[in-house]
Design a protein that fits this description.
binds 6-O-phosphono-beta-D-fructofuranose; ATP-binding; four-stranded parallel β-sheet; 343 residues; allosteric enzyme; alpha/beta
Length: 343
């Protein structure tokens, strides 16, 4: 389902969005793994809503906080100086209580007590599951905003936090290349991404890696031996191999195969949670601002149970269930390109 908000004329006049749903108060929370740009999304929700005369309630600690009633009013000044900050000012959690109908019923009651007309959930597909059940069981309108470094959500070209995570990982790869080349060592670098290889693929191309292993391609790890032997024969000093954490055996498995097959000195670097931190890059801030605004408009238009995404620079609305039932593929052209350029 693709939809584009009408482009208002270029004017300094404030834009008033139609509000057929009669929304007067919305709640917003962040859930699951934090991602750089979540604060920019919260800010966009608060400021869009406020400029439409709608009050915003911030929920602390995601769905865990919602079931405990950790709600607070957020005004435009509460989100000042946050657009450049990593993490999430609302805090986040992976909630177990929310997986029970009782936990969700308590959360729904807190929203009803505060006369909340709709909930905006910034997170990944696990968080969208939680939002979906809230809508199904209690009729509370919900909108998902894709916030995860993994970029693994169907229905949006990119997720908030992805661009920054790639930059952070790339910075580490560049540094590891310096030391790797100096020692003529092989570096096997593991990046995050859960079950998806999006981060790995971008980092491999941008970092000039010799080889990349992603969960989407089940190629045998032993192929790395030939790759390394060939790069030595070509006179390369040191090699960079990128491995997505979801590839079976991870970076250690790849490094073990290299050492067993070549006897060459190999080092493993698992970048880990550093990829989730830091100030969001401009692409994440812009995406978050745009999606946060669109989420408020979506509630005002009477939409629910959808994720706002951006595809080809256009705002789209995807049923929440599609985000976990359909799989977003990696960019196959990029995968080929990584191989072509590693000669
Ligand atoms: O979904 C974001 C992510 O950072 C994944 O890349 C990673 O697999 C996971 O979260 C780590 O989760 P946790 O912070 O709970 O260890």
């Amino acid at each position: 389902m693709t939809d584009q908000h009408p482009t208002p004329a270029l004017t300094a006049e404030p834009h008033r969005h139609p509000n057929p749903a009669g929304v007067r108060r919305v709640a917003v929370l962040t859930s699951g793994g934090d991602a750089p740009g979540m604060n920019a999304a919260i800010r966009a929700v608060v400021r869009t809503a406020t400029s439409e005369g709608i009050e915003v309630v911030g929920v602390r600690r995601g769905f865990s906080g919602l079931h405990r009633g950790e709600l607070q009013i957020l005004g435009p000044r509460d989100v000042a100086n946050t657009i450049q900050r990593g993490g999430t000012i609302l805090l986040t959690a992976r909630s177990h209580t929310w997986r029970t109908p009782e936990g969700r019923a308590r959360g729904a009651q807190h929203l009803r007590d505060r006369q909340v007309d709709g909930l905006i959930v910034i997170g990944g597909d696990g968080s969208f599951h939680g939002a979906h059940y809230l809508q199904q069981e209690h009729g509370i309108p919900v909108i998902g905003v894709p916030g995860t470094i993994d970029n693994d959500l169907y229905g949006t070209d990119h997720t908030i936090g992805y661009f920054t995570a790639v930059e952070t990982a790339l910075d580490a790869v560049d540094k590891l290349r310096d030391t790797g080349a100096s020692h003529e060592r092989i570096f096997v670098i593991e990046v995050m991404g859960r079950h998806a290889g999006h981060i790995a693929l971008d980092v491999a191309v941008a970092g000039g890696a010799e080889e990349v292993f992603i969960p989407e391609d089940a190629k045998d790890v032993s192929c790395v031996v030939d790759v390394v032997k060939e790069s030595v024969a070509k006179g390369k000093t040191g090699s960079i191999i990128i491995v997505a954490e979801g590839y079976p055996g991870g970076a250690q498995g790849v490094a073990d195969a290299i050492e067993a097959g070549t006897g060459m000195e190999t080092r493993v670097s698992i970048l880990g949670h550093i990829q989730r931190g830091g100030s969001p890059v401009s692409s994440d801030r812009v995406l978050a601002s745009r999606l946060g605004e669109a989420a408020v408009y979506a509630l005002m238009e009477g939409r629910s149970d959808v994720m706002v995404g951006r595809q080809n620079h256009t705002i789209t609305f995807i049923p929440l269930s599609d985000t976990w039932e359909k799989r977003k593929d990696v960019n196959r052209d990029l995968y080929r390109c990584a191989k072509t350029l590693s000669i």
